[in-house]
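Homework help thread (please don't just give me the answer)

Our assignment gives two proteins as sequence + structure token strings and asks us to describe the second one. The first is just a warm-up. Here they are:
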Amino acid sequence: MIRYFKICQKYFKLKINDKKLFFLLFLSAFLRSTIVLLFPIFAADIVDYATIGDFDNAFLSVLFLAIGYLVYNLIYHWNFVAYKNYANHIYTKLQDSVIDKIATYDENFTKKLSKSYLVNTTSNDIWEMCSFADQMIDAITHFLSLLIAIIILLSKNIYIGLIVSVFNFLYLYCLAKYQKKKDYYLSGQRKYQDYIVEMFAQVLDGTKEIKSFDMNDKLKENLQVYEKGWSKQYFLKRKYWDINKAILPSLVIISKVITYLIAIFEIAQGNMTIGMMILVIRYIERIESENTSFFEKINNVCNSSVRIDRLYNILNYNNKNILNFGENYTDDIFGNITFQNVSFTYENNLVLNNVSFDIDSKSMTVIVGKSGSGKSTIFRLLLRLYKLDKGVIYIDGINIYDYAKEIYSSNVSIVTQRPFIFNMSIRENFNLVDSNQGNQINACKRVGIHDFIMSLPKGYNTLLKEDATDISGGQKQLIALARTLLSKSEILLFDEVTSSLDPNTTRQIIKVLKDLKKDHTIIVITHKPRLMKIADKILVLDKGKIVGEGNHKELIKNNKYYRILQK
């Protein structure tokens, strides 16, 4: 019961419960489980009154029994309605909570919890959690009914009550012992299931490579390792499941046989009536039924402990890198950026070392350097993903950590090398940022993708596949760029946006960047000389330090690091 209590306690720590709905669910379940305890009393009275010829009281007991059954059915219906309302609340609340939490995670999250872990949890565990409260409450009410039935038996016949109590105690003790072991192996089974799901996801993503390099057999060997691990955990889990389900109930059967013999002996001695024997038998059968129900419910609750742990890990992930926002609501941002003596360490490696530079608004700055020189870290710091070790970053003279969340988020945006497009129409993708159709058309015209969209069968209402795999990389990049413009950000970050594009699309992107710098602060990470040549300023990084600053002509003439990069 202590372990069961801890599972329930962790469930409430998820902070998804609605007190009113939970109370109605508990009350309806409790009344449903306890009202049936009256039925054996009415049945025993009917037999006793009929045996002695008191038919008036016998008929009255029949009436009470009929009313009891009617009330029971009404309460059962109420319980179904209460469960429906509570399950709907839990499902929507959990989905919203998980999505809200994932949206705030840092880049280290998937190192602790894999993508397959997330997919498995959100697709299976959230749905299964809808019934957890129902199973938890049913387990409580069945346990209470079990205690009440035993107390009634003790009051009717002390010997029968004690025998039933002892055997049920042994049953519940063994049940708890083997249930814990079963749950341990269930957790291991889920871990290997995550590995298998992740393997299938990688197979889907790497189909071309698998065919090109004939990797299928080797991948199947890896898969078989996970399958063997899953099978081992599964059979160990089933071992303890079988003990609980098939062997332990024999304790209850033994107690039934003994109590029936005692009841026969009591009748033979004239110490028990036929009605009392029926009552005792009905309560013994009820106790067995409550035991079976309690086992099923407690099993479901303990199975859910794994699901609760997985959801708890997601909702309570300690996101050390995400910083609190300030309370500065200044929205009249021009986009002047200053890095002042900025140093940053990541996983014990000094990535930026005392970096200082200025970027003017309405300009285009290109950041260049070898891999690992700190280029992407500058973007991550501008996006407020990490806390600085030393120094300050200013936008328009204000520390970036002082801006309010909605102000900062709406003024600093990034376009990556592989932007993600959702599996919905082009317009619906835009609606996620700005639902004004006029603004959407203007943004698409500005980046040069409007005519292509209008050439599609359904124009802006054309449904795109997941990650827009049905259009070219260049078209996808331009749609992503138009989406970024809809955010009305003053500062636009471009991370290797032309690295995998054809020459025509690259020219189009360069044209767009030239246009955007008229009213935006543009910062670009690139290895393309064509982009370097049109930049107003180039920052050259090497091993976390600024080793060059100027335009293309100045650097090609005076900076050895830049000349090496050009080669």
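The one we have to describe:
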Amino acid sequence: MTLARNVFGVLDRSAEAAYGDRPAFGFEGETRTFVELRDGATGFAGGLHDLGVRPGDAVAVMMGNRLEWLEVFFGLSALGAVCVPVNVLLTGPEIAHVCRDSGARYLVMDEVAGRSVAALDVDFDTVVLLGEVAAPPSAHTAAYVDVRQGSLPEGHVGPALDDVAVLYYSSGTTGLPKAAAHTHNGVLWNAMGQIQGLGLTKDVRYAVIPSFSWAAGLHNLVLGLVWVGGYSEVRRTGGASMESIVEGLERDRITHVMLVPSLLRDLATRPDLMERLSASALEWIVTGAEPVPRSVIEGVCRGVPGVDVCQGYGLSEFPTITTVLMADEVFAHEGSAGRALPHTDLAIRDADGAIQRCGTGELLVRSLATMVGYHQRPEQTAEAFRDGWLHTGDLVELDAEGFITIVGRTKDMIISGGLNVYPKEIEDVINRLPGVVEAAVVGVPHERFGETAVAVVVTDDADFEAATVEAACAAQLASYKRPRVTIVRSERLPRNANAKLLKRELRPWAEQQVRDSGVSDSAKKSAGTPG
């Protein structure tokens, strides 16, 4: 395997390889070969240079999924500028924070960004416009089609491996979002680990469902496939129903796809869609963002025989796929997120602060693919990288074989009467009950025990009762682990753009429900949904 000098070097060498004239990406009937994408990226890089962008400059990118997104990403890499993806779901003030915090003096945008940036109060040197879209007030603008016609100066070398390639901003769970800084070296190790660990080849045809503005969009399989000559079919941002996804998988002869758990749950309830996938080219589904109940995995495996269903775990701080539970391991390791890919080392920090190779504690990751730190936040960087390990903030059980089972977030752990209660252990019991669509357990204040567990259960069964949860937990859990209140609702649980559960929003709502209902210490009760 040839090592690349930087991220653009992967595309450049693939364009020069035997598969250079093969399609690398497709989007709504249009394709780009490796050569065409390389040439478009270098043209865009040259046009940015003509506008004054220099190596190390931050360039904000807010666009929906499309082929031009890839030209921009590789073009910035060729130039040595820093790509700052802006989440397509952000509002004006949130976008302003990302642009100011990153120091982005340039913005590339299309119609997806139009509404959000219409009144954006940020001074840019230039805004590059793709399509019919209005720029922020008083901004100097340039048309994408014109910028793409440039050429880099003769003798341009490009960035080094240790130069920063991209800044990914968090969802801002505590305070303002912060950016994970990734070098070209880290991005390439992330891709190489997937090539080896997932067995990627030039014959893989991957459907890109996540937005390119999220780390999973570009860094789950996509760059690895660029490296080995595979193909990625890009889906337009937003509006992803399981039915429309299946139509695309059939039409584009897709072999690999990533489906977040909510989509996988939908698929498990549609025998007709699973039957169609059984007759398609699909070979492999990976899911992640949160543990998936065994009932869902079993349902899809039965409904789509011959398709491997794998579970994964990853970070925006990288590796984006840190661990994978392969299809032949699913039933022997129920609830596990698998073992580390070849480029990653795992450990845990236990309750006493000791670093251990197995046990329960905060998951620690060590890999050449991790971020180098949080952009301009040295204190938070030092906190994240204590003792040479990246601290993930996720509570896991790490067994002697290297399999991890996600228990929850360190901040989600409930300490009730001095005893540790792990929400996932309770959630696993509840999720196995008939009629449960999804469930979450959060800790709320309690006068006697400090905290107590409250279960929020989403069901589509009008006859489902909280007593069902009480009985199941009483039969399978120690008394101190059982939720003291169960709230039954039909409204889905709050999630962020990456489909991750937002317990920070659910917790205060549950606390208010308990307070308003006046349920006693040991009572179980159904409650309404937020108004």
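TA reply:
I won't write it for you, but here's a hint about the kind of observation we're looking for: The mean pLDDT is 90.
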